[in-house]
Write a structure and sequence with these properties.
Blueprint (H helix, E strand, L loop, with lengths): L2 H8 L14 E4 L8 E4 L8 E2 L5 E2 L3 H8 L6 H50 L6 H10 L1 H78 L1
Helix pairs in contact: 3-4, 3-5
């Protein structure tokens, strides 16, 4: 008998009341046997994409790469767009964290309920129960595996969203550094132009002085 078939024989476990009174979708995390649910965070106004397991993908990596780009020929635009984009990605990171925490909570509840169901099943069968036996049954139960796998996936999605927020902090530093470099470059060019103008002025004054001296000599 497979673990899936054994899990189906254990009987129903209560549905975790994780979404009560809170916004958000509820995604199934069961494969075979009774259904156990894991709450998934509500999406912002612009609904993000979803994974095959129903988790929300709050950050599009391809769009993130585009948003992180800095047009060095238009630093004003980069500076103006920095704060709004940072706030946007910080918000996505917050939503992703919420989703991850709710998945973790759902996995913990699922594991507790499955533990109780297996103990009840073993007792009804007259099986001598050991902690190792219960632990192995719970660990191998497809409902627990599904819930924990979804938690791992939610963690990965949060890591991407959180790193995107950090990336925009680095983008801000890059804008500042590029602006400073450009200012230094302009100042250097102005100094060179000023030196050239001074040299031209000196040469012109020298030429005028030589011409005046030659005129004086010719007049004498």
């Amino acid at each position: 008998m497979t673990m899936e078939e054994m899990a189906a024989m254990v009987g129903d476990v209560d549905t975790p009341a994780l979404a009560a009174g809170t916004p958000g979708a509820v995604a199934e995390v069961a494969t075979a046997g009774p259904v156990v649910t894991a709450a998934v965070a509500a999406a912002p106004a612009a609904a993000p994409a979803a994974t095959a397991s129903g988790l929300k993908v709050y950050v599009d990596v391809k769009q993130l790469r585009t948003d992180l780009q800095i047009n060095q020929n238009d630093l004003d635009e980069a500076t103006i767009s920095q704060a709004p984009m940072f706030i946007h990605y910080a918000e996505q990171a917050a939503w992703a964290r919420r989703q991850m925490e709710k998945c973790k909570l759902a996995a913990e509840v699922t594991e507790s309920q499955v533990d109780h169901a297996w103990r009840k099943k073993f007792a009804e069968d007259g099986t001598k129960v050991t902690e190792a036996m219960v632990a192995n049954a719970v660990k191998s139960d497809p409902r627990v595996i599904k819930a924990k796998t979804q938690t791992i996936e939610a963690r990965a999605l949060f890591d991407i969203a959180n790193d995107s927020r950090e990336a925009f902090m680095q983008r801000k530093d890059m804008i500042v550094q590029v602006s400073v470099d450009r200012r230094r470059e302009r100042d250097g060019q102005l100094r060179i132009l000023a030196a050239k103008d001074a040299e031209l002025g000196t040469n012109a004054a020298r030429a005028d002085a030589l011409a005046a001296e030659q005129a004086r000599r010719q007049a004498a």
